[in-house]
């Protein structure tokens, strides 16, 4: 009734199930995943509620934690934010997509548009880190030299940007 091929539906459901299973055995402690989810949801909720860019102080108040505790959360989840390149998210290398270009063309364009808008809304430093990391292929050490900041600070900015983007995208896109 929705004029979507069964194969499209089945592919997305199967792919989602595979990803779920891989996440179960990925070796990342559940507590770290929970921390990432908590921060992502906090970013999403606060940006929606406040109608502006969320600052660390907003997060601390909302989560009832200190700035040191927030920084420790960022550090603990940093490895989770560097494992999935945006290219894989937008343009999966998969034969299904090659065989069914019309089924996914609109979805890809919409996803790219939403991702571009979300990146454009990031605070300046976070946007710069995302641009240099994903579009200019610089690593954190190189970015730290360009921006004259420590590698740790670059990692923190990257983590915050990814959390913001995930929060924005989770509100606007529906994933399996």
Write up what this structure looks like.
Helix 4 packs across helix 10 (151-172) and helix 9 (140-147) packs across helix 10 (151-172). With 176 residues, this protein is mainly α. The chain contains ten helices and no strands. The longest helix has 22 residues, at 151-172. The chain is globular, with a radius of gyration of 18 Å.
Features:
about 75% helix; single chain; about 180 residues; mainly alpha
Class from secondary-structure proportions: mainly alpha
Helical percentage: over 70%
Characterize the overall form: globular
Nearest-integer average pLDDT: 80
Q: Main β-sheet, in a few words? A: none
Strand content: under 5%
- How many strands appear in the DSSP assignment? 0
How are the SSEs ordered, and which strands pair?
Blueprint: H1 6-24, H2 30-50, H3 56-63, H4 67-77, H5 86-90, H6 95-99, H7 101-120, H8 124-135, H9 140-147, H10 151-172
Helix pairs in contact: 2-3, 2-4, 2-10, 4-10, 7-10, 8-10, 9-10
Short description:
The protein has 176 residues and is an all-alpha fold. The chain has ten helices and no strands.
């Amino acid at each position: 009734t929705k004029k979507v091929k069964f194969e499209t539906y089945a592919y997305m459901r199967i792919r989602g199930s595979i990803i779920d299973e891989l996440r179960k055995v990925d070796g990342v402690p559940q507590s770290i995943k929970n921390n990432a989810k908590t921060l992502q949801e906090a970013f999403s909720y606060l940006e929606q509620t406040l109608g502006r860019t969320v600052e660390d102080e907003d997060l601390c108040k909302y989560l009832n934690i200190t700035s040191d505790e927030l920084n420790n959360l960022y550090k603990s989840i940093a490895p989770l934010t560097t494992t999935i390149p945006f290219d894989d998210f937008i343009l999966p290398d998969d034969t299904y997509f090659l065989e069914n270009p019309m089924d996914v063309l609109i979805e890809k364009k919409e996803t790219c548009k939403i991702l571009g808008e979300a990146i454009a809304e990031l605070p300046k430093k976070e946007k710069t880190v995302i641009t240099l990391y994903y579009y200019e292929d610089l690593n954190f050490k190189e970015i730290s030299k360009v921006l004259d900041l420590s590698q740790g600070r670059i990692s923190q900015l990257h983590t915050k940007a990814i959390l913001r983007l995930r929060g924005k995208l989770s509100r606007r896109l529906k994933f399996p």
